[in-house]
Design brief:
The protein has helices spanning 3-17, 32-43, 55-67, 80-83, 86-95, 202-211, 233-236, 240-243, 258-265, 305-328, 334-344, 357-365, 389-398, 412-417, 457-465, 472-478, 489-497, 515-523, and strands at 22-25, 48-51, 72-76, 100-105, 131-134, 149-154, 192-196, 215-217, 247-251, 270-273, 289-290, 350-353, 376-379, 406-411, 433-439, 483-486, 503-509. With 527 residues, it is of the alpha/beta class. It folds into three domains: 3-154, Rossmann fold; 192-313, TPP-binding domain (Rossmann fold, 3-Layer(aba) Sandwich); 329-523, Thiamin diphosphate (ThDP)-binding fold, Pyr/PP domains (Rossmann fold, 3-Layer(aba) Sandwich). 49% of the residues are buried.
Length: 527
């Protein structure tokens, strides 16, 4: 047996023993030993194998599987293939996801020689990810795979195995679990709100309910449930009521709202925060004290109910104004699409949301679900990029062996950025997933930012609006992906009520000419 085959089989055995159950493979020559070993392990029922021709899509497919609590690894060949994994690796680093990245490399004797497809792969992902450069089975001794890890595997000729491998049985270590102590009891006194950013979890809701405080929860926080969660909190923060906030307790990674960012940066507001996740421990706002991140203390005192009641009344009033304003808007709006998708997610359903406008639209439109009627909402908020969203959604859906339905919501630019995610071979596992694409022929989010001001109108379209004119129906037809185009709320609701199984795309056509004016109108609302 060749050294390359022995090393590859040992690496795959270590993955299986560490609890990795999903392997995403991008084809290549140098990674052939790892490919054969992964195939044999899948044939033995020790893992599930996925193949993708695009390394960037492969990386985000593995990321999506990991986001939904599967242990996943991605394997690629040497050279530029490795660089295409970088976006997914960065997202995993900043979101603290235990992705395993295996890159095949030439042997050390060929490094620095301009050998074909040979570059410096050791440390290619920068200081955020510690590399393990493996040249022999001995390098696996003591290797721990319970966090994000990069294994750069040196493989020398001959690369093809001489026989079929029968892997050893599984001795599963299991997926890593975070353990927490109890949150320190937060004393009453200042007028307090709880902010739940991405991946905050139910502990934010539990503290808000036990203390009687308003809950400002992003859609992907895992905490936007119950009577304390507010739908239109970002519109309330710039009102007189918002100015009365004296203290904020922060969980998760808040990134969506400028009003929340301004709140956290106010000098007259005390900020208590759970420890930050990801590669950096510092938060981008001043933190006066760090609290524990487990369940709230059982003896947490309750605040004056008048504070919460004022927020609940204001939220109900401004929600009505938002609905009236949007009902009067001509045509199908992105907000209406987000609201329809949110309502279409059933109990135990999954919703994957793209970056840019859709998750912010959802933040305004998603009404908090009742406690106990769980919906899983996932978004790549570690770096909040649009990269790989289609593949992330497919991976997250594939990781679910149960649940009621899988949906995704994203913009047209985000969809085009990862349209390769729809390229799947005939033997590949396919989930049931409805992808709703909000198509406004370009980047509408920039119209709501400073560069969308009227004085920049002459240059806006070329630099930021970036109309593309792509026929999404034809694009979907190229991959035999079912496609429906809708341009009204009624048509969208009908399409969402009748999924046909497998991966399908619902294109919701909206305009963006009046998007800035509509956004300004919403921000000006008062309850």
């Amino acid at each position: 047996m060749s050294d390359a085959t022995s090393l590859a089989r040992a690496v795959v055995t270590r993955l299986v023993h560490a609890g990795v159950s999903e392997v995403v493979l991008a084809p290549g020559s140098r990674n052939a030993p790892l490919s054969f070993a992964a195939y044999d392990a899948a044939a033995a029922g020790l893992l599930r194998l996925h193949t993708r021709i695009d390394e960037r899509s492969a990386g985000f497919l593995a990321l999506g599987l990991t986001r939904n609590h599967a242990r996943a690894a991605v394997i690629c060949t040497s050279g530029t293939a490795v660089a295409n994994l970088h976006p997914a690796v960065l997202e995993a680093a900043h979101a603290e996801l235990p992705l395993v990245v295996l890159t095949a490399d030439r042997p050390a004797r060929l490094r620095g020689t301009n050998a074909n497809q040979t570059t410096d792969q050791v440390g290619v992902f920068g200081r955020l990810v510690a590399p393990h450069d493996l040249s022999s089975v001995d390098g696996l001794d003591g290797l721990v795979l319970d966090a994000l890890v990069h294994l750069n595997v040196q493989l020398d000729d001959p690369l093809l195995p001489e026989d079929t491998w029968t892997p050893p049985g599984r001795a599963v270590q299991g997926a890593p679990r975070r353990t927490f102590g109890h949150t320190a009891r937060v004393d009453l006194g200042p007028r307090t709100v709880v902010v739940a950013g991405d991946d905050a979890g139910p502990k934010a809701r539990m503290l808000a309910e036990r203390a009687g405080w308003p809950l400002l929860a992003e859609p992907s926080s895992g905490a936007r449930t119950g009577t304390h969660a507010l739908r239109c909190y970002r519109l309330l923060l710039d009102t007189d009521l918002g100015q009365q906030v004296e203290r904020v307790v922060v969980f998760g990674h808040p990134t969506l709202s400028r009003p929340v960012a301004r709140l956290l940066g106010r000098q007259d507001v005390q900020v208590l925060a759970a420890p930050a996740r990801g590669v950096w421990a510092r938060r981008p706002f001043p933190v006066h004290a760090t609290i524990g991140v487990g369940e709230p203390a059982e003896d947490q005192e309750r605040d004056d109910p008048a504070w919460l009641e004022a927020w609940q009344a204001a939220d109900a009033g401004i929600s009505r104004e938002v609905d009236r304003t949007l009902a009067a808007a001509p045509g199908l709006t992105p907000y209406a699409v987000a609201g329809a998708v949110s309502q279409a997610v059933p109990v135990d359903g999954l919703l994957v949301v793209g970056a840019s406008s859709p998750i912010r639209d959802l933040d305004l439109m998603a009404r908090p679900y009742p406690v106990g009627q769980h919906r899983k909402v996932i978004a790549n908020r570690g770096l909040a990029g649009i990269d790989g969203t289609v593949s992330t959604a497919i991976g997250a859906a594939l990781a679910r062996s149960w649940g009621s339905r899988n949906l995704a919501l994203m913009g047209d630019v985000t969809f085009l950025h990862d349209s390769n995610g729809l390229v799947m071979g005939p033997e590949e596992p396919r989930p049931d997933l409805t992808i709703v694409v909000v198509n406004d022929d370009g980047g509408s989010i920039f119209s709501m930012l400073e560069q969308g001001a009227p004085e920049h109108a002459g240059r806006f379209e070329r630099l930021f609006g970036t109309p593309h004119g792509v026929d999404l129906a034809s694009l979907c037809a190229a991959t035999r992906t079912p496609h429906w185009k809708v341009d009204s709320v009624a048509e969208l609701e009908h399409a969402l009520l009748a999924p046909n199984g497998g991966v399908e795309v619902v294109e919701a056509v909206v305009g963006r000419q009046d998007r800035r004016a509509l956004d300004e109108q919403l921000r000006a609302l008062r309850a």
